[in-house]
Structure formats: structure tokens, C-alpha cells
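Budget justification aside, the reviewers requested a transparent look at the raw inputs and outputs of the sequence design task funded under Objective 1. We therefore reproduce one unedited record. The lines immediately below are the C-alpha cells for a 321-residue chain.
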């Protein structure tokens, strides 16, 4: 769809990824960006700069995915919707019913409201968690769903519902399967934060960073601003009823990640490796790298920011925040 002059609703727009998506939208000729967020994980501070733009507003009546009336009201004038709100991996493991209510039932509500309000295009935030551990690398979009955790199962359900709403109601959508996203505004202190903030927090207080396993686990780390660009490209593309990997196509082991972080921080600390707990070994994947060809072909998307530069920007942000 063409975004020029259009109203775009960003669900979860005050969050880590969502706030960057709002910024990226405002770089276009969009008419209005409306942020829908309950601020359970999102923060008003993430929006402080974008709210200076008269085209950006916060939906003032709340942002609950469970309230279909609110969703319908927020979408009344929306031409496009980007759905980024979700309960994340470790939180899903501890609170699976909440995960179902937010990630599955909430996504159904979003899809239903999109149809009822004749939304032109939906971009659904899925996850590489749908794949589980890599059975082949790089992982194409046709890689089998080998997920074994609650979070991935909710994203599989979301994808299946997108397809069903497309077939039954003609809903125009694309889904984005994010690899390991990092960068500014990622929660640095929460219990459910990612490996990079945890490592930086340890280094920040002079403690040796701890790694589960032997460090050979390897992932595709993608900087959040690149992910935001992928969302806008997903909204703009003519493609529909398709899912796309959003990654760099470059794989980095945790051991190599530690080396880069220690170098960039100027630290002489040593990494401590410890065995996985039984539950951790079960829920965390060990190997993941995206095939990016489909996203390049259909979305014109390619990640611009390499890991070293992305980590440098993250450290700069941490130092200023």
C-alpha cells in the first residue's frame, strides 16, 4: 500500500521495536501515526522525540488487546496496521495463560478489527521462534516449524490466523519473522530481557559475564532500526499472504559475541561458561540463521547495520540514558 497521507495504527508502538517503527514511519510522507499501547512494557519516554511531530498521536483511551471495542475505535480511520504487541519468550514460559490471552486471543481481536474496519494492510510481527532449532541453514521461510516453547507456539497460531482471515475475508497482510533483535530501548533490567543487556549489565558492575552452555550457540543478531525499516517495507509492499525472515544472514556464536562486547567495552573480564539448567536447555534454541533472499526480492529489504556498529550504538545509548 502507499503510505502517503494515510493513517497508520501501530499496536505496541511505545515498545522496544514499536517505537523505532513509529520513527521510521515518520520519515515517510505518512499522514498520521496513531500509537496503541497499554504501557505494560512500552514507555512514554520512547516516544518523547516522535511526539514533537504533529502527525504522531497516542490513542488516548488505552491500548488493551483484549478490548475489542477499543481496537475497533482506534482503527476507525486506520488505513494500515502494524501489530507488534506481544508477551515475550521467557514471560510466556512462566505465564502461559497470559501468553495465550495476549499473543493468541489478542491477535485474533486485531485481525477481526482489521476486517471490520476495512484496513488496507496489516503487518504482523511473528518470530524466528516458529522454526525452533535449525534443521538446515540458512533457514528459508519454508523451514519446518520445529518450535518447542509457548512463545513460538503463540506466533505459529498468529500466523495461522492471519492466513485464515486472508482466505475467509481477503485481509491483506504480511508477517515478519524476526531473528534476534537488539538495540536501544530494549529493556536493560527486566527479568525477561535478552542476552546482550544481561551481559552488558554484568560488565557494567565489574562482574564476569555468565553464559549458559559452551558459547557455541549461534544466532542471527539484527539491529532494531533495521527491523523497523522491514516493518515499513512490509506495509508498502504489494506482496500479500506471505511471511518473511528479518535478519542479517550472518551468524554469530555467543562466544564471538562476548569477544566483541568485551573489546568494545574495553573490559579485561573473563566469560564464565556454565551448564544449562534442564528447563533452559529445553526452551532455548542453539542454532539459527536467516535466509534473507525472499525479503530482498519482495520487500527490497536488506539489513544495513552490522553487529559491531550496532553494539557500538547500543553502548552509546546506554551511556547517555
Amino acid at each position: 500500500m502507499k503510505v502517503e497521507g494515510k493513517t497508520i495504527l501501530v499496536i505496541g508502538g511505545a515498545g522496544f521495536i514499536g517505537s523505532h517503527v513509529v520513527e521510521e514511519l515518520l520519515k515517510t510522507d505518512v499522514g498520521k501515526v496513531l500509537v496503541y499501547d497499554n504501557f505494560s512494557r512500552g514507555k512514554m519516554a520512547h516516544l518523547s522525540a516522535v511526539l514533537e511531530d504533529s502527525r504522531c498521536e497516542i490513542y488516548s483511551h488505552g491500548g488493551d488487546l483484549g478490548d475489542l471495542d477499543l481496537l475497533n475505535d482506534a482503527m476507525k480511520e486506520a488505513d494500515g496496521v502494524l501489530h507488534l504487541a506481544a508477551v515475550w519468550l521467557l514471560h510466556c514460559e512462566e505465564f502461559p495463560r497470559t501468553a495465550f490471552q495476549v499473543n493468541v486471543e489478542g491477535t485474533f481481536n486485531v485481525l477481526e478489527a482489521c476486517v471490520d474496519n476495512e484496513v488496507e494492510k496489516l503487518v504482523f510481527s511473528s518470530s524466528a521462534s516458529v522454526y525452533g532449532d535449525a534443521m538446515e541453514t540458512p533457514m528459508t521461510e519454508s523451514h519446518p516449524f520445529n518450535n518447542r516453547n509457548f512463545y513460538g507456539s503463540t506466533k505459529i497460531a498468529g500466523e495461522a490466523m492471519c492466513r485464515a482471515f486472508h482466505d475467509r475475508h481477503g485481509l491483506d497482510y504480511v508477517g515478519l519473522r524476526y531473528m534476534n533483535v537488539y538495540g536501544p530501548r530494549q529493556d536493560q533490567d527486566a527479568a525477561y530481557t535478552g542476552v546482550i543487556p544481561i551481559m552488558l549489565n554484568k560488565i557494567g558492575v565489574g562482574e564476569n559475564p555468565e553464559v549458559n552452555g559452551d558459547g557455541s550457540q549461534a544466532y542471527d543478531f539484527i539491529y532494531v532500526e533495521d527491523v523497523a525499516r522491514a516493518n515499513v517495507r512490509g506495509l508498502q509492499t504489494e506482496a500479500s499472504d506471505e511471511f518473511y525472515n528479518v535478519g542479517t544472514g550472518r551468524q554469530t556464536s555467543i562466544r564471538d559475541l562476548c569477544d566483541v562486547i568485551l573489546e568494545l567495552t574495553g573490559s579485561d573480564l573473563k566469560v564464565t561458561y556454565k551448564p544449562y539448567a534442564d528447563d533452559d536447555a529445553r526452551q532455548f534454541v542453539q542454532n539459527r540463521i536467516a535466509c534473507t533472499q525472499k525479503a530482498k526480492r519482495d520487500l527490497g529489504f536488506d539489513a544495513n547495520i552490522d553487529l559491531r556498529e550496532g553494539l557500538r550504538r547500543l553502548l552509546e545509548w546506554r551511556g547517555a540514558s
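The mean pLDDT is 94. Residues 134 and 287 are 6 Å apart (CA to CA). Computational costs for records of this kind are itemized in the attached budget.
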